[in-house]
Amino acid sequence: MATDILAPLTGKIVRINIEPGASVVEDLEILVIEAMKMETPIYAPCDGTIDTIIKKEGDDVEEDDVIAIMA
Amino acid sequence: MIAPLSALVKTTGFMYLTPGMIFMWFIGLLLIYLAIKKDYEPLLLLPIGFGILLANLPLSGLMTPEHGLLWKFYEYGIHWEIIPPIIFLGIGAFTDFGPLLANPRLIFLGAGAQAGVYLTFFVAQFMGFNIMESATIGIIGGADGPTTIFLASKLAPQLLGACAVAAYSYMAMVPIIQPPIMRLLTTDAERKIKMKKGRKVSKREKLLFPIVSTFLIILLVPASAPLISMLMLGNLFRESLVVERLKHAAQNELMNIVTIFLGLPIGATMNAQAFLQPKVIFIFVLGLGAFIVSTATGILLAKAMNLFSSQKINPLLGAAGVSAVPMAARVVHKVGMEADKKNYLLMYAMGPNVAGVIGTVIAAGIFMTLLSS
């Protein structure tokens, strides 16, 4: 079942540590969002494989925007 | 030969140095050190530190009424109440009130965290400060630099330097002062509470907010008008989306320019004679007390609200009710993530945090209304 990785807070993506096809485990740091001049690490919601990455580094995201989809 | 030489020496400042002045140099240098090495509010503490050095060099005449350069900055910038409102214009331009509108009940936390201001007001009077001075010291508990300066210049100009330095020091030390209080007053389970998503806030709501707030707050507390009007005008620049240039100027160029003219004369009010008094130590102690009480009451109020509501609030958010924006919100976010690394409180904390700014301005307005007549 596909799981969306959502932005938990509004900000700017400063780093993406994953690539399509990568397998991840729950709680792995997969990207970093900067908000209020502070970097917040975002963790994988569950075990799985990254299917597509929709956003790229430098993109601004709103809360609940889909950043990537896990297969 | 000797006589003209000694006359020449007397025109230099060396003959007029006092031990107090030299002591003040060290305080000035300490602030400069903290600004550069520790990154403690460098935008303010660096010019304040330099201003202190200047104020303690004899015969410079920089603070001579009517003539001195820094006196003019002080008189026309601060005493005339020009600079703090312009700073608020910039704050309004970069503040997003969205998180507040998304979770309106968190406004109460911004109000609850003003308790330290009022408690300290009474304690300071008990300790022998007069009523004007007590109000000025209490407002330090809001951890809001421009508001502290604004109130001090109206009610107790003799304390302005010390109160401003206390307020900015505590703002810089938010990440050190707040976490122990937050951990003490909350359980691990409470810190792990995840906030329910706020509702979506429309562009129209954000646009109406500064206009409606201006009417409401100024009608309620007219004395808060100088700060609130500028704050909301800046916010209207931001949310109207049609004056990007003005918004940009207010939050960047204009803010930076007035910051220079704010810090320097504040430092310059701190000459040895005015600053080296036992009073000043009490100001720092009382100000710190006010700030701690404000943090604690914010947290306790959040816990009290949880007793009456099925939708639990993470009580850490209460600590963001002090108006150090966004430092207090960042601290809440960090302490929340320590408990559960997938608990992202930052945006929720911005709600009480910006409410705290408005709360502190209103508290200052109430003091001015009651005391300046």
- How much of the sequence lies in strands of chain B comes to under 5%
Poorly predicted sequence stretches spanning 5 or more consecutive residues of chain A: none
- Quickly give the structural class of chain A: mainly beta
Question: How can the largest sheet of chain A be summarized?
Answer: 4 strands, antiparallel
How large is the share of residues in beta strands of chain A?
A: over 45%
Count of strand segments of chain A: 8
**Percentage of helical residues of chain B?**
over 70%
How many helix segments of chain B?
21
Features:
heterodimer, A: 71 residues, mainly beta, 4-stranded antiparallel beta sheet, 0% helix, B: 373 residues, mainly alpha, 72% helix
Description:
The complex is a heterodimer of chains A (71) and B (373). With 71 residues, chain A is mainly β. Chain A contains no helices and eight strands. Chain A has a four-stranded antiparallel β-sheet, with no helix packed on it. In chain A, strands 5-4-2-7 form a four-stranded antiparallel β-sheet, with no helix packed on it. In chain A, a hairpin with a 2-residue loop joins β4 and β5 (38-43). Chain A is globular, with a radius of gyration of 11 Å. With 373 residues, chain B is mainly α. Chain B has helices spanning 2-10, 19-37, 42-55, 69-79, 83-94, 98-102, 107-112, 115-126, 131-139, 145-155, 160-172, 174-185, 188-191, 203-220, 225-240, 244-251, 253-268, 272-275, 278-307, 327-339, 346-371. In chain B, α5 runs antiparallel to α10 and α20 packs antiparallel against α21. Chain B starts with a helix and ends with a helix. The model of chain B has no long low-confidence stretch (mean pLDDT 94). The chains are: A mainly beta (71), B mainly alpha (373). The A-B interface holds A 8-10, 27, 35-38, 40-41, 43, 63-64 and B 197, 326, 329-330, 333, 337, 341-342, 344, 346-347, 350.
